[in-house]
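Q: Predict the assembly, please.
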Amino acid sequence: AQKVTQAQTEISVVEKEDVTLDCVYETRDTTYYLFWYKQPPSGELVFLIRRNSFDEQNEISGRYSWNFQKSTSSFNFTITASQVVDSAVYFCALRGEIQGAQKLVFGQGTRLTINP
Amino acid sequence: NAGVMQNPRHLVRRRGQEARLRCSPMKGHSHVYWYRQLPEEGLKFMVYLQKENIIDESGMPKERFSAEFPKEGPSILRIQQVVRGDSAAYFCASSPFGAGGTDTQYFGPGTRLTVL
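A: Predicted assembly structure:
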């Protein structure tokens, strides 16, 4: 079975601090895809990134960076110099290549609050 | 290029009534997915459809729930004889390619169903 665990239920930091959101996954597929989505207070789900299992390069996009470690089955998300607008619930998700290839399996989410 | 459209955004029903949720995929997308988000939980896959076909309904409750994606018009998620436990946010997503590859699901704003 596929599973995504986001152990941090809630994180609260002060603006400009760096913050890392953890994501650990389980899958038996050799090829799979990992995603991060942001759910701001308005409720919609915003796609942030997709990472393929065969590409272990880390990625940076502005203040956002992602650290993919296949050896520990983790795909962590770091926000540098956080801002109040980063406050949201962040979901990590997994999609396999073989088992139920279409469906996304989501973690429980991490509620991030950035205080001014 | 409009994103995924869902309506209504908010829906209130009394126990025993029917709820109909609509989803129009992004232009050029022919794959539609429905997910449910119960309060304070992550999203759970319900069903995957292509035009006129249900591809995977492994996440759908066995009774009262049905989905369709007709040749013309939006995808519909239908809940008959709603109960309080159906209160949740229902998200629709669409993607261009379907299973495998670099396919990414883009989400609509969701429909918040409240059952009184």
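The longest strand of chain A covers residues 88-96. Chain A has no helices and twelve strands.
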